[in-house]
Amino acid sequence: MARASLRSLAKKERPAAAWPTLRRLTRYLSAHRGQLAFAVFWVVFSAANSSAGPAIIGWVVDTAVAARDAGRDAGALTLPVAALIVSSIAGWWSQRMQILELGIVGQKALYDVREDVFAAVQRLSVAFFERTESGDLMSRLINDIEQINRFLAQGFRRVIGAGLGVAATLTGMLLVDWRLALATVAVVPVMIGTTRLFGLVARRAFRRRQESIGDVSSTLAEELAGIKVAQAYVRTGRNRSAFEQRNALNRDANVTASAVSSAFSPALAVISASATALIAGLGGFMAARDLVTIGVVVAFFNYARSFFNGVTQLSGLYAETQAALAGSERVFALMDTESEVTDAPDAVAIGRVTGAVAFEGVSFHYGDGPVVLHDVDLAIEPGETIAIVGATGAGKTTLANLIARFYDPTEGRVTLDGHDLREITLASLRANLGVVLQDPFLFSGTVAENIRYGRLDASDAEVRAAADVARATDFIERLPDGFDTRIGERGSTLSVGQRQLLSFARAVLADPALLILDEATSSVDTRTELLIQQALSEVLADRTALVIAHRLSTIRSADRIVVIDDGVIAEQGTYAGLLAEDGIFARLHAAQFAEE
Distance between CA 390 and CA 572 in Å, rounded? Predict the structure, then answer.
């Protein structure tokens, strides 16, 4: 199975050039060039010291032979043995320093990578997250980053150390005896050719492995999120079968990657062992004819082992580097993803707005989908409460998304206080907005931290005041630690109604000029709905509001009701006026109250 996979991978197109990705990755290391230079100094020192080791051993051997032949005592060995001891201590210390310093530099670089990728994710538009599987995204942020971590924390140090070690060893061999050095180097092209041959396969194998991990992660994330539905519809068995297929693909991808990795070392070990035997034989032949000393042969035997170990290590690290590059490609691709909604070069920051909103000839469609809004013209006056109603899929939420500039219109424009939203910085626009969604999102932390989310400098008194307005104080004080009670992820320890009240308190504390309520009461019970209605009478005073409503009973006090039908504004008017017209709103009203 593994060999078949290797053949299929080898037939595919060659991977993208590695150098641009490698340069970009090492740029994070060079950002800490001062400490990096200090670390590289110890790597160079260690390599030079290692290359001197075999020569010192040869010195010891030749000194011992000369002392024996001359009939002298072992006192002549004092100096070379002392040099060998000093070299060993220096090697230990330099190894320690390079591991420590390069490890620190690697972690600093990884910190920068994580900061950049998180910043890139934060700036991406809502559309990206709607079309991207969360599991694959998490795989890039966790598994692929871990591949980069392995390279920066260990792989880079080992590559530099092994590379400089091979260069220093080669230099030492040339200085000791150039003939044996050339014989040693003669097999290097064979090793390089073998490495490149595997390299053509390795990069694609490791990339496929990372992609399969993302697929498994996506499946797990989706299945865990929908476990209640799966159990309710008795789909757990089918889901297990579907997951088994994806898991099998991941297994095969990992087996293929392991096959690629495992093939490196044995092949290179055979080459290096053959070369070492050649050097030993050639050295023995030359020593027998007094062309070199026995110490030189012993030194070269150690040089050869060190040289081939270094080349083998570099070849093995080549496979690890391919894994890091495969992960880096996916991470950098995420970082390079362009957001559909960005600040224009000449965008201006605005202060507090009055809340005048206008849709001027706005049409919109999501991606390549059908048109959702058709040539919409709508003016909302400052302080006016506008209710948006209509059938499911009519385009109600799309209007709110355009005001918050989660998307830009396909045609036309949306203005705030006369400014095209595309001419306003996103930060200053959204600083004027408060949004309460149908499915409120709460973060892990305390109740107070969740209310303070939209205004971090708010005092405890202001947090409590916002909770009072949102009618949330009563249930908060019944919690074990009141405002300091920690709630689980997504507020899992609270009821839907309690989460909605906290979400509403968060919007109140932010004190926005424009408040968007996207079916904020459709998922709550009648008592919570009544509490929210009482709070709205205070919050909406002198504030522009866009209320998307499913329950028509909640919008009686709206200044104006806008009925959206199939992406166009079909009706506008007051609650009573629209009922009297006996049009779409009246029919929606009659149907809803008949159901109730």
Answer: 12
